[in-house]
């Protein structure tokens, strides 16, 4: 969950815990890095810090740029 743009709520990354013995650890690690740090969680936190961006650019990022954060 992305942090609130006004800083009133931090971002949260939820780790799926159902059926842990059927999930590959390497996939879970890759997903965590993709979504958390340095992935989308960090990207959204950085966007929230850039208060001079228009609301459209803060809430509707370009997909190619957004996915670039998660590589």
Summarize the structure.
This protein is an all-alpha fold.
Care to describe what's here?
There is one protein chain. This protein is mostly helical. The chain has one domain (20-69). Helices cover 46% and strands 0% of the residues. It is built from four helices and no strands. The protein has helices at residues 25-35, 40-49, 55-59, 63-69. It holds the Pfam family DUF885.
Task: Give the uncertain stretches in residue-range form.
Answer: none
Task: Tell me the quaternary state.
Answer: single chain
Determine the mean pLDDT: 80
Look at the helices and sheets and give the structural class: mainly alpha
Biggest sheet descriptor:
none
C-alpha Rg (nearest Å): 14 Å
Number of strands: 0
What form results from the Cα inertia axes? elongated
Number of domains: 1
Q: What amount of the residues lies in strands? A: under 5%
Helix content: 40-55%
Order of helices and strands: HHHH
Give the termini distance in whole angstroms: 19 Å
**SS summary, helix count:** 4
Highlighted features:
71 residues; mainly alpha; elongated; DUF885
List the helices and strands and how they pair.
Blueprint: H1 25-35, H2 40-49, H3 55-59, H4 63-69
């Amino acid at each position: 969950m992305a942090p609130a743009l006004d800083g009133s709520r931090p971002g949260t990354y939820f780790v799926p815990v159902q059926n842990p013995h059927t999930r590959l650890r390497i996939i879970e690690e890759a997903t965590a890095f993709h979504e958390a740090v340095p992935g989308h969680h960090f990207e959204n936190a950085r966007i929230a810090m850039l208060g001079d961006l228009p609301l459209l650019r803060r809430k509707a990022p370009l997909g190619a740029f957004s996915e670039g954060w998660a590589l």
